[in-house]
Amino acid sequence: MTATDERTRWLALYTLCAASLMIVLDATIVNVALPSIRDDLGFTESSLAWVVNAYTLTFGGLLLLGGRLGDLYGQRRLFLLGIALFTLASLVCGLSTSQGMLVTARAVQGVGGAVASAVSLSLMMSLFTEPADRAKAMGLFGFVASGGGSIGVVLGGVLTDAIDWHWIFLVNLPIGVAVVVLALRLLPGGAGTAAHGNGLDLGGAVTVTAALMVAVYAIVNGNQDGWTSASTLGRLGVAAVLLVAFLVVETRVASPLMPLGLFRLRNLSTASVVGILWAGAMFAWFFLSALYLQLVLGYSPLQVGLGFLPGNLVMGFLSIAVSAKLVMRFGVHRPLAAGLLVAAAGLLLFARAPVGGDYLVDVLPGMLLLGFGAGIAFNPVLFAAMSDVRPEESGLASGIVNTAFMMGGALGLAVLASVAASRSSHLQSDGHSTVSALTGGYHAAFVIGALFAITAAVIGAALFRMRTAHAPEPATA
After folding, report:
1. Rounded to an integer, what distance in angstroms lies between the CA atom of residue 112 and that of residue 96?
2. pLDDT at residue 281 greater than cutoff 50
3. By C-alpha distance, which of 378, 202, 363 is closest to 279?
4. Most exposed among 50, 133, 215, 350, judged by the fewest C-beta atoms under 10 Å?
5. CA–CA separation, 370 and 344 (whole Å)
């Protein structure tokens, strides 16, 4: 490979990372700005949730379909379509003057984000085929994917405090345009397998997309409606029926949307389970620690953002400079287990943070441990997930991994928020002050988040295979 080719593929990776960061940011950057959006556009507390949920629903529901469409019709083509749609929707979000305009644009953002995200990992895999280079690339990509959420908290606080909430969306416009221009020049093309006669499994696409969207809707509304309410159980039941219908369809069509044999690939299946648990633990960090800083310690949005900065710096350094070397030397087991256990220790430190906590004593140590753990652990999960997948199914596998993380984050956040609210309510009824009750609720949720991380460490250490070189195996239904 010439020096020019080498430079081109690394520039292509930076382009993919910029796109991934932009998409991941928009899942969390809006949270810090929600009070300002509510006051400006007149949202109620219940309707305000749709600023987040509209994005979550379409993003989570379309990841699998987006990945498969990339395999069928060309990954670069779908990536460009997704980024263009996401960027235009971001512009509309930033210019929104009504509730309906903002919520609709957020839903379209989710569509574009899902399509682009679903194929990003597979595009990266096609750029880097040597194990050492792939591990380095995944370190950078993993930092963006895992650290983007907490970076969103930082950037959201800065933009909301310094300028205006509209700019948390408008900042995507120059980035999106640059990504499209660079992607056209740098990313490899390809017609996809549809050029060889493989068509879209429409029945599978409709059933799995509907199942995921109904499931996400049930999860994000579970705390509000009650987890044992008829509405929540009914939605989960509908999602289960749709999922069964999808599995039946996949066993009967000639070219299934998801060849069920993929789940016989142990690394991919294990990575999906680990991803669900790991995302739940990470969301405990992103959201609950931000709530602790704001509602208990009284930090401003900007102070909350800066509070996350040390953990992000540690995460970035380890993801980019250290994690790949550990994977190449020790395989995926030990770095994954070590990283997740260190992250669990960070969450347990937050579980003892007091009402009158001090940043240097009660917050910073946990932030640093979480940054260390995330920086070490995320790369092994991605590397293992994609190591056994054939090139023509890499987009679908990328969609599966992204769906696992997204669903794990949504479900984990719902469970942890429910635990925190229940514990806080119980403490308040026992006579504790509001701030003390909130703190007690967060403590309980942090402990559950730590258990998620520990469980993920045990499963990954036990089930991932030691080898790290890419050696595809058959994946037929």
Report:
1. 18
2. yes
3. 378
4. 133
5. 8
Helix axes 99-127, 364-386, angle to 10 degrees: 60
Lowest mean pLDDT among 317-326, 366-375, 382-391, 446-455: 382-391
Q: How do residues 82-140 score in pLDDT, each as one tens digit? A: 999 999 999 999 998 888 899 999 999 989 998 898 888 778 877 887 777 777 787 77
- CA pair distance 221, 208, nearest whole angstrom: 20
CA distance 407 to 34: 22
Judge contact between 315 and 371, C-beta under 8 A.
yes
pLDDT of 132-165, one tens digit each?
Answer: 777 778 777 777 766 666 666 667 667 766 677 7
What is the Cα 78 distance to its own chain's centre?
Answer: 19
How far apart, in whole angstroms, are the C-alpha atoms of residue 380 and residue 428? 42
Q: With helix as H, strand as E and coil as C, how does 465-477 read?
A: CCCCCCCCCCCCC
Both structure tokens of 342 = 């260190």
Residue 10's SS3 state is helix
Q: pLDDT, tens digit, for every residue of 1-35?
A: 555 577 888 899 889 988 888 887 777 677 767 77
Structure tokens at 121: 């990992």
